[in-house]
Amino acid sequence: GIRKISDVDVGIGITGIAGPTGGSPEKPVGLVYIGFSSSEKTFVKEFQFDANRITFKNLVLYEVLKVLETYNKD
User: What CATH number does the domain containing 54 carry?
Assistant: First the structure.
């Protein structure tokens, strides 16, 4: 995957609908997935934020930083 292609220890992927348009009933505005991969573990977290586009991006960044902080503690 991304770790091998990029020759890195940790890979993070983010996808979602920041809005204000582009949502659907299946994938509403505010939906985001954050994927994490290391040699020890791989997981995906799903979030649904009710926020404007700028706040949405800040909330996603905060969650990514929390994931990295947890990884660094392990």
Answer: 3.90.950.20
